Amino acid sequence: PRPPRTHEGAPGLGVFVCLGTRAMAGHSARFALAVACMAILVSMAVSMPTARLLKAGDASGRFCTPTMRLKGGCGFLGVYGSVLEPLSLRFKMMKLARLMRHRGPDGGGIHIIDSKNTPDRRHSIAHERLAIVGVVNDPKDVAEIGRSDPSGDHSKLHTLTGNQPLFNHRGTKSLSINGEIYNYKKIKAMLKDKTPWKTASDCESVIHLYEEMGVECAKHLDGDFAFAILDEENDELYAARDPVGVASMYVGYAADGGVWFGSEMKCLLPECDKVEQFPPGHYWSSKTRKFTRYYFPDWNEASKATRALDLPKLKKDFEAAVDKRLMTDVPYGVLLSGGLDSSLVASVVVKMCKQQSRPMPATFSIGLVGSPDLTNARAVAKQLGTDHHEFHFTVQEGIDAVQDVIYHLETYDVTTIRAGTPMFILARKIKALGVKMVISGEGADEEFGGYLYFHKAPSGKELHEECVRKFHDLHKFDCLRANKATMAWGVEARVPFLDKDFLDTAMFLDGKYKMIHKGEKTQFIEKWAVREAFNCDGPDGTPYLPQEVLFRQKEQFSDGVGYDWIDGLKEHCARVVDDYMFSIRAERFPHNPPSTKEGYYARMIFEQLFPSKTAAETVPGGPSVACSTAKAVEWDETWKKAYESGSMLDQSGRAVDGVHESATKCF
């Protein structure tokens, strides 16, 4: 019989006492001591945060049992046209995939096929899995194993469907994917082939859709994804990335002519002479060996962004985007910084869970002691009634983490590192609590002109054009940070503001409704439309957010965690990088030379970790103020003159003099 369990799923202490008594009777004192120690550890474990967080029915999530439905965000690797022999290629794939095992600690797989057209070449895909959706102990799997081995006792066997690669029904096409496909049920219904799927994974929809639609399949997917498909029948490889670039993906070109694909750059650098980011909204086919854009929304042109403001539709569409991302059966949470975007996500999630009788999420925040983010996050969590977890870090702890942050984020961009460091630290804490998925608020600032420099926009048309530029750069900055800072610890971040349908709602809106008019009755603050859409009571009869949070001024995450974080990091960099080192920065770093000592410090670490020129070329550069593009620097004469004179521009929101409530002279 199974040992009795406590209310939190731990084996009862009485079982260990019984086992210990039997062991003593059998003169096994050493075993008895070990059992007694286990009993003590279990009694401690059930009182730890992880056990409480996974407790059935509480505000944090569902009880984690072996019969839970799971699925995967993860890391993938692929190569088309390698000259390595099968055994050597398998070892190579294992070695490279190991470099991103942090993304998928729950399982893995490798598939290799010989090229039909070029006998001395092979193709392969590999996968490192983070289980979030699929089925543990699927009865179909247990039954199949029972038929193949009728003499065995399979009562304690654990199976996990959804492991990759995934195959089509005939086993001739294979898929390795990092992603979530939110419209997989619709895809399943539209497929001509009604053969039952082999797994419960939403990602299986991709391989069957490709079977019927070929290279056009990517444009029919609604989700965040990066994947590669091997087509053994036609000796082809097909790879694609989601429209925004939420899922990380790189492409590399090897000296032997092989083309490599992977979730992280570090997996490709050992084999490739040239590595670059796989462009979002594109697919690559071995037929043409070229990228083809499949996502080209009309709102790229300002002349097409002319829709009138419709607050009820904006609210409804955002709620639909959040609802899609609640597709999970593991304990999950919301990253709650206390700013508008994350607070709004948390509020919608909580009210939706109450309305639909779903498990409530935990909320997580981080900051220096006394930081504005922590204060506001506490207020939001209190109103929403979430199981809130607040974490503190010090400036020194942040500085100590910078090298790891640069390794995992694979960037030397100053703003990305500033914001990525507290997010990286927070993700580690979250994973320690047993949470694998979080919902986050990235994307709203790019869609609605939320950064403080947008106060300087001269017209609605120019504001919209800047939003489009910011959107097309998201995969280099905020999406890169959100994906890699969390996946460094095996935590998946989902971003409802960047939902494909909600993007249309936001980006087709006429730019004049996003302009900021300080002192007026409407549009008196950045992202006014989003704020006003939720300036009401929810279905439970309570406001979505406290007024002081709903209309809180934009605070960049790297500022909101505490101003001392950026100031302390800059002071540290000034001590490490002396004036002589900085004076010869263009000689040491001829490509994209740093403009500040903080940038030099980050670049110095990056070059130590990734010394190749092609790695440095994956990171964008150019002038910027408070996260602006280079074009928007021209909106303000002070910024423009400062850049032209060689002055050092700063990414902090406090650099926007006359707008930020704590503005400071940054250049």
Structure characterization notes:
The chain is an alpha+beta fold and about 675 residues long. A six-stranded antiparallel sheet has the order 2-3-1-9-8-10, covered by helices on one side. Strands 4-5-6-7-11-12 form a six-stranded antiparallel sheet. Strands 15-14-13-16-17 form a five-stranded parallel sheet, sandwiched between helices. A hairpin with a 7-residue loop joins strand 2 and strand 3. Helix 11 packs across helix 23. The protein starts with 12 loop residues before the first helix and ends in a 23-residue tail after the last helix.
What is the strand and helix layout of this fold?
Elements: H1 13-25, H2 29-45, H3 49-53, E1 72-82, H4 86-98, E2 107-114, E3 122-131, H5 139-148, E4 166-167, E5 173-181, H6 184-190, H7 204-213, E6 223-231, E7 236-241, E8 250-254, E9 259-262, E10 272-277, E11 282-285, E12 290-293, H8 311-324, E13 332-335, H9 340-356, E14 362-367, H10 372-384, E15 387-392, H11 395-409, H12 414-432, E16 437-439, H13 444-448, H14 460-472, H15 478-487, E17 492-494, H16 500-507, H17 528-533, H18 547-550, H19 557-560, H20 563-576, H21 579-583, H22 585-588, H23 597-609, H24 613-616, H25 637-644
Parallel strand pairs: 13-14, 13-16, 14-15, 16-17
Antiparallel strand pairs: 1-3, 1-9, 2-3, 4-5, 5-6, 6-7, 7-11, 8-9, 8-10, 11-12
Helix pairs in contact: 1-2, 6-7, 8-16, 9-10, 11-12, 11-20, 11-23, 12-15, 20-23
